[in-house]
């Protein structure tokens, strides 16, 4: 759980306690959030893990099951929480989130307005960025989604930094109480151009706005609206390419000049009772290649800065 130290900053209690939220890490693509309960157990392909064995251990510990299998107990950072949270809506992932926080210039002490909340992936990172003295006010028109987000923020220990409201920002705009007070505004709406006039009124002079849209037509219409009161309008598409790094078996063949060269990697050598004349040596090599499941387009990020009057 993200425990709050109100006098300094957002931080982790380094030893796991009964009731804490931990990320159980099996491998990079297999993780889950688990609430620690002294009398409970976790059962997976590696065996049975007693929660009582976890209590008192620091985050990052390697713990063993009754069969000798193991998992790691990690702290629920915003990055890991993004990978394990329940997807009530499409979410932003780490590449987009880091870009948003940088371009919106979100730092400790900022007041950030967000619409809509969705699954709370970005909200969690906003909360850490504004800690300890800032605050995030996030709005969703769907009451059940807002309630689920509140529960998640309680679980992750950031509820003192985040206020969740139920409001149709496209139709009603942001509450007047924030007029001229927001450092940054983030919009994730089907028709963001309807909320841009309200967002302008909420922002401080020189404040920044970001709108996330999956379709370029939404971007075009938003930019038309932004031109009247904003400057430095820019749109980005974040494309993330991941690589697999692993050990491969390499078959060495002789070439005319006497030097050895390598054939393309093979996952498995075929058994043979007779070795070929040229196939006289084999060794391992670490190679990197693009992942077959690289994530492509998620959406467009449009940034703008409120014009100084």
Automatic annotation (TrEMBL):
Polar residues bias: start-end ranges: 272-285
Q: Which SUPFAM superfamilies match?
A: S-adenosyl-L-methionine-dependent methyltransferases
Species annotation: Gossypium hirsutum
Record-listed S-adenosyl-L-methionine binding positions: 119-122, 140, 168, 188
Task: Write down the top EC class of this protein.
Answer: transferase
Extract the Pfam families matched here.
GCD14
Region described as Disordered: 256-293
Tell me its EC number(s), please.
Answer: 2.1.1.220
Give the record's GO CC terms: nucleus; tRNA (m1A) methyltransferase complex
The organism's superkingdom is given as Eukaryota
Its catalytic activity?
adenosine(58) in tRNA + S-adenosyl-L-methionine = N(1)-methyladenosine(58) in tRNA + S-adenosyl-L-homocysteine + H(+)
Q: Which UniProt keywords apply?
A: Methyltransferase, Nucleus, S-adenosyl-L-methionine, Transferase, tRNA processing
PANTHER family linked to this entry: TRNA (ADENINE(58)-N(1))-METHYLTRANSFERASE, TRNA (ADENINE(58)-N(1))-METHYLTRANSFERASE CATALYTIC SUBUNIT TRMT61A
Q: What is this protein called?
A: tRNA (adenine(58)-N(1))-methyltransferase
> Per its record, what are the GO molecular function terms?
tRNA (adenine(58)-N1)-methyltransferase activity
The compartments listed are:
Nucleus
A Gene Ontology biological process noted in the UniProt record is: tRNA methylation
């Amino acid at each position: 759980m993200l425990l709050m130290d109100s006098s300094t900053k957002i931080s982790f209690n380094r030893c796991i306690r009964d009731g804490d939220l931990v990320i159980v890490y099996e491998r990079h693509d297999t993780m889950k959030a688990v609430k620690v309960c002294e009398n409970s157990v976790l059962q997976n392909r590696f065996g049975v893990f007693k929660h009582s064995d976890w209590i008192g251990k620091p985050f990052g510990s390697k713990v063993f099951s009754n069969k000798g299998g193991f998992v790691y107990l990690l702290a629920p950072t915003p990055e890991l929480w993004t990978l394990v949270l329940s997807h009530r809506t499409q979410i932003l992932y780490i590449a987009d989130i880091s870009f948003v926080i940088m371009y919106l210039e979100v730092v400790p002490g900022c007041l950030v307005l967000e619409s809509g909340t969705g699954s709370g992936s970005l909200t969690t990172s906003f909360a850490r960025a504004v800690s300890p003295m800032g605050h995030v006010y996030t709005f969703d028109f769907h009451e059940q989604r807002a309630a689920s987000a509140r529960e998640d923020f309680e679980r992750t220990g950031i509820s003192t930094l985040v206020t969740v409201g139920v409001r149709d920002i496209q139709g009603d705009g942001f509450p007047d109480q924030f007029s001229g007070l927001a450092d940054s505004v983030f919009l994730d709406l089907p028709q963001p151009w309807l909320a841009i006039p309200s967002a302008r009124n909420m922002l401080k002079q020189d404040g920044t706005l970001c709108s996330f849209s999956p379709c370029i037509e939404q971007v075009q219409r938003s930019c038309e609206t932004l031109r009247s009161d904003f400057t430095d309008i820019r749109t980005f598409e974040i494309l993330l390419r991941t690589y697999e790094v692993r050990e491969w078996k390499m078959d060495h063949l002789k070439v005319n000049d006497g030097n050895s060269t390598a054939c393309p990697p093979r996952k498995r050598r075929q058994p043979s009772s007779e070795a070929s004349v040229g196939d006289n040596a084999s060794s391992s090599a670490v190679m990197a290649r693009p992942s077959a499941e690289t994530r492509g387009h998620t959406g467009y990020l449009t940034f703008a800065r409120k014009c100084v009057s």
